[in-house]
Amino acid sequence: MSDFPVYAPSEEQELLRATVRELADAKIAPFAAEVDEESRFPQEALDALVANELHAVHVPEVYGGAGADALATVIVIEEVARACASSSLIPAVNKLGTVPVLLSGSEELKRKYLGPVARGEAMFSYALSEADAGSDAAGMKTRAVRDGDAWVLNGAKMWITNAGVSEYYTVMAVTDPSAGARGISAFVVEKSDPGVSFGAKERKLGIKGSPTRQVILEDVRIPGDRIIGAEGTGFKTALATLDHTRITIAAQALGIAQGALDFAIGYVKERKQFGKPIGDFQGVQFMLADMAMRLEGARQLTYHAAVKSERAMQGEKIPDLTFVSSACKALASDVAMDVTTDAVQLLGGYGYTREFPVERMMRDAKITQIYEGTNQIQRMVIARQLLK
């Protein structure tokens, strides 16, 4: 036998996949349509994930977490998304909100905020975008002004996932308006801080179970030790965070696409036209083959990126992390949009109705091409990495 290492998830990671899939099928999938229809938070999913310690598996053991690596975290998000995209944003956004603290926060900050997340007592959201600062995040207007030993924050953050449900928020704010991107700092803001409020829930095409709202900051006074890293390093931390968390959006896209493909395969085996299952027709088989090929290609790139992410989190310098994280996010989300659209097509008129889950999956897939950097921005990032 060759000594070449197996390029695949470990046996332990595949066991994790089976565990999460079983849990998602039993405790999350039965509520997915209702969560979407009623645009309500998937509390059943949160309860099930917390009970099984799957809501924030990435938190290191030293802070009370499971200490799962980046690939294991991807597998958890992927399998939850296969059942319900809204629910997959629980582990995904917990990682997004906490990675800035993990990367740049003081040891005191890590111990204070990662423990409650690991125990399932709090969720952690990420507040970067503003109404006029989306792709141009460095153009943000939210201000943080030093006042003695404290900071006072004013501004409004837009498109914040799980806003109002999460207890904690990583907030990027301008501390030196004359310094451009180098004048942005990162802070931990708590939901209970005086002056914190939330806008109305956005009425969305998909992921309706995950509330998306403005986070409004009006003279929010927080202790000085809530700054994440040194003053002026917030934007650098934000970009470094996205190098890791774009991969979790790719994972969500993979799960949505896999759920749609699995349902479509089951359907074409049973649906009969012209006296035989439509899965016997070559045109249908070609569609399934293309869906599965592209999905598996995106999965392998995503897993490859996750391994690099984990190595980077352990302190290794990974020169192409930005490239692979952008590439897997763009590819997986484009594939998810294509696969879910084809799944609707394979179900014909039934696919277009809410009686079947593929129309929901198609709507949910769209956001993966938009958030954490649109796929147009990803292509710019990829090209710059190639050309530098």
UniProtKB/TrEMBL annotation:
Domain annotation Acyl-CoA dehydrogenase/oxidase N-terminal: ranges: 10-121
Entries under Gene3D superfamilies matching the protein: Acyl-CoA dehydrogenase/oxidase, N-terminal domain, Butyryl-CoA Dehydrogenase, subunit A, domain 2, Butyryl-CoA Dehydrogenase, subunit A, domain 3
Cofactor(s) needed: FAD
InterPro entries the record matches: Acyl-CoA_DH_CS (IPR006089), Acyl-CoA_Oxase/DH_mid-dom (IPR006091), Acyl-CoA_Oxase/DH_mid-dom_sf (IPR046373), AcylCo_DH-like_C (IPR036250), AcylCo_DH/oxidase_C (IPR009075), AcylCoA_DH/ox_N (IPR013786), AcylCoA_DH/ox_N_sf (IPR037069), AcylCoA_DH/oxidase_NM_dom_sf (IPR009100)
Domain Acyl-CoA dehydrogenase/oxidase C-terminal: 232-387
Pfam families found in the cross-reference section: Acyl-CoA_dh_1 (PF00441), Acyl-CoA_dh_M (PF02770), Acyl-CoA_dh_N (PF02771)
Ranges where the Acyl-CoA oxidase/dehydrogenase middle domain occurs: 126-220
Superkingdom: Bacteria
Keywords: FAD, Flavoprotein, Oxidoreductase
Protein family per UniProt: Belongs to the acyl-CoA dehydrogenase family.
PANTHER family: ACYL-COA DEHYDROGENASE (PTHR43884), ISOVALERYL-COA DEHYDROGENASE, MITOCHONDRIAL-RELATED (PTHR43884:SF12)
Protein name per Swiss-Prot or TrEMBL: Acyl-CoA dehydrogenase
